[in-house]
Known about the structure:
The complex is a heterodimer. By secondary structure, chain A is α+β, with helices and mostly antiparallel strands.
Amino acid sequence: MVKGVSDSVRPKVLEAILATYLTDGHYNGISIGVRNIDPIIFKHLADLKLIKSIFIVKGTGDTWSFGSYFSKELSDVALNCLEGPRKPFARIKNEILKDIDYATFFKWIVEYEGDIFINRWTNRLLLVVSFTQYEPILESLNVNAVKRLKLSVKNTKELMLNGVVTPTRLWLDDVIEEFMRQELNIAPVKYYKYYQIEATKSKVSFVHNYQIYTDVTTDNIAVEHLCSMTLEGTWKSIVANIICETIQAYHKGYINSKDIHLIKKVLSCNIERPFKGPYNEYIMRNLPAIYPLILNGTRLQVHKKLKKFEKLKEYLSIRRKKSLNYLLRSMPLDEVERLRYLTLTINSLGSLFRMLQEGSTPIGRIKVMGMVVK
Amino acid sequence: MKHSKHFKKPKIIIAWPYSEDNVKFAKALMELGIIDDYELSKEQHEVYLISYRNRVTITLSDEERMFNTALGFIPKEFIKDAWFDSYIDIRQGRIVKYTKEEVIVESSEKQR
């Protein structure tokens, strides 16, 4: 039992734990700082009264981050529930683990750490929820990679079998296994894990890949369940809804496998590719939701924050050029035409386009309006 | 060596829909010596498994090795009943055996 926490406060405290736990926490006020995070998450946290204000900072690379501090009191409670100080090596204490509301816990894990997508295994269509955690290997290996280098699963396995490297069991292992046992105990859902070693110039890491698969080639059993695994009103829930409808439309024969590929292309949020696409515009559109939190503080603090806020908007809208408009310009004409059909067939995709049409830049708006049928 | 491969005419081509995992699987099949090569279609909508030989034989055990090589695990539950469906879209050659145990594809030339 956590000291000083009454049963009525307990559920919210647990949400605090997971929220803090999923972030780069440190004692005495746990901060969250995530690149381009969905602003609605901050609204969720504020609604839970977990955070009162937000700061905006320039990241180490070419990124901007939102951040927030949890109170020291809340940090104390959260850290009381953990063994060890930092993620992902801290473990949730056993007595806390058994009382966690996994359905809620998992929504936050999906939001912060998860990726939802449709995949193909040969001719099978799969719904995948994946998580990735990096475990630094400090002295185990001596790889001086000039650029990012990822070993294959096979080579990583060989190194593990030869005893060169051994992965640590992370907190996510316990959480996913418990979640699968409690919440996803339905036949078509399977959980697998595999490892890869990744080297950059400065460090070598074990990449823990967690994958939850559902075969949706012919049935919908787990598809709708996916939507319930996301927090309401967030980008992940939009993605889950689009994927859900996409699979249903595919089963009914309204769309083909090329269309699935195209929808994946639109939704893809991989920073390596020029298809960050709608996500930036979605963030832009939702920024006003956190205004009340930004305006918190002294006049000078607010002034500084607003200046950074403007720079963030500029970064999202101009510098990165990863907008829906950019995406459409990069696509061949036949794909844009097909996308027009898909926005009509898949309601949630159409809603996303209409939503971004309202919030996008003037140039983007003209282009997007050209393809969304009212 | 690389040039000679380009001038060789594929005798068997099996098509899969494109996905990053399917590319990994194709690479694994090549590493395992089950196919000779793989290619992506022009618009990257498909992955072609290519053999320059007259016969390709794939068994459930090959399929499991393919998963193990590409992803590091074998999803037995997903593949045990339907794995052979993956080798139904033959663009060159023809299926001569299609069972739960093995799939055999032969080149059309051999038939003639």
